[in-house]
Design goal:
The protein has helices at about 10-15, 55-65, 95-105, 140-155, 165-175, 200-205, 225-235, 250-260, 270-280, 285-300, 310-325, and strands at about 25-35, 40, 50, 70-75, 110-115, 130, 135, 155-160, 185-190, 240-245, 265-270, 305-310. The two termini are about 30 Å apart. The chain is built from eleven helices and twelve strands. The strands form two sheets. Strands 1, 2, 3, 4, 5, 8, 9, 10, 11 and 12 form a ten-stranded mixed β-sheet that branches. It is an alpha/beta fold and about 325 residues long. Helix 4 (about 140-155) crosses helix 5, helix 7 (about 225-235) packs across helix 8 and helix 8 runs parallel beside helix 10. Helices cover about 40% and strands about 15% of the residues. Bound molecules: ligand PBG and zinc ion (ZN).
Length: about 325
């Protein structure tokens, strides 16, 4: 008789036949950098996550270095917002200065710069707005400008999260034109219009002042369209594609990873983090076990790397696990 239980008899045996593994090498940790001084501001809906100012960054960077995580995704929270999001492409904006500082303080960290306008615009949309419409083509040159300033500040990779059509091509061209031919673009290609982003909008102060993001982010019912988005971005020059959110979209992660030939990243977003933290705080679930189970599900679906707010904790748990083996 086929006895599936033979290979489950001990931890040693289970480890031997384990099909997927987690590693801190594949984690990307998001960091919020706010303009100002002496800031370590907790994000209420994301326990354990803070906004930092450039001068307080060493505290969190030391934790990152200690954890073994080696990649960061950087978001900026500027003091000044306007309809054009000008701080997004200010050579000395908070994000640019933050990246400059990180590359100096911890050159061994890979710094990925999120590129979007929503943290910088007074209306909170990811593009320029006219008569209540989010403009596509008019937004593209601004995203390209922002990308070049971030590359100049030292970003190792550019990650556009705006979901305007055609932005990857325009950003690629601008980076090449400015001499950054070797700076990869990691595109948020299949980014769904999701309620799971709401805690992030607390963290980045980027909630839209009117309407929502449904005319540019993807409609949750659509899976095949996510493949088209990824293929279009790859055609335009994306080096890595992102599927976001992760957990409610693991089918998309799987489809994309089986279809494309570039690395696939998935973003374990703020709402997914908040739900786990809330249940854990109530003692309703074992945080460590649920986080590791969630993360391995992303690997099983085919993700090559994971952006996650749990990165530092998870890296620590993985180290403990290895120590015990
Ligand atoms: C900005 C951006 C968002 C996230 C990453 N980049 C928010 C949004 O599109 O509203 C979400 C991250 C998260 O929820 O953790 N475009
Ligand atoms: Zn945005």
């Amino acid at each position: 008789m086929e006895r599936m239980r033979r290979l489950r008899s001990s931890q040693r045996m289970r480890t031997l036949v384990q099909e997927n593994r987690l590693s801190a090498d594949e984690f990307i940790y998001p960091i919020f950098i706010a303009e100002g001084k002496g800031i370590k501001e907790p994000v209420p809906s994301m326990p354990g996550i803070f906004q930092w100012s450039v001068d307080t960054l060493p505290e969190i960077l030391d934790q990152v270095l200690e954890s073994g995580v080696r990649a960061l995704l950087v978001f900026g929270v500027p003091a000044h917002k306007d309809p054009e999001g000008s701080e997004a492409y200010n050579e000395h904006g908070v994000t640019q200065e933050g990246i400059r500082f990180i590359k100096k303080y911890a050159p061994e960290l890979l710094v990925i710069a999120d590129v979007c306008l929503c943290e910088y615009t007074s209306h909170g949309h990811c593009g320029l707005v006219r008569d209540g419409i989010i403009l596509n083509d008019e937004t593209l040159p601004l995203l390209a400008r922002a990308s070049v300033t971030l590359a100049r500040a030292g970003a190792d990779m550019i990650a556009p999260s705006d979901m305007m059509d055609g932005r990857v091509a325009v950003i690629r061209q601008a980076l090449d034109g400015a001499g950054f031919i070797n700076t990869p673009v990691m595109a948020y290609s299949a980014k769904f219009a999701s309620v799971y982003y709401s805690p992030f909008r607390d963290a980045a102060h980027s909630a839209p002042a009117f309407g929502d993001r449904r005319t540019y982010q993807m409609d949750p019912p659509n899976g095949k369209e996510a493949l088209r988005e990824c293929l279009a971005d790859i055609e335009e020059g994306a080096d890595i594609v992102i599927v976001k959110p992760a957990l409610a979209y693991l089918d998309v992660v799987k489809d994309v990873s089986q279809t494309v030939r570039v690395p696939v990243c998935t973003y374990n977003v703020s709402g997914e983090y908040a739900m786990v933290k809330a249940a854990a705080a109530k003692g309703w679930i074992d945080e460590r076990r649920v986080v590791l189970e969630n993360l391995i599900s992303m690997k099983r679906a085919g993700a090559d790397m994971i952006i996650t707010y749990h990165a530092l904790d998870a890296a620590g748990w993985l180290r403990q696990q290895q120590g015990k083996d």
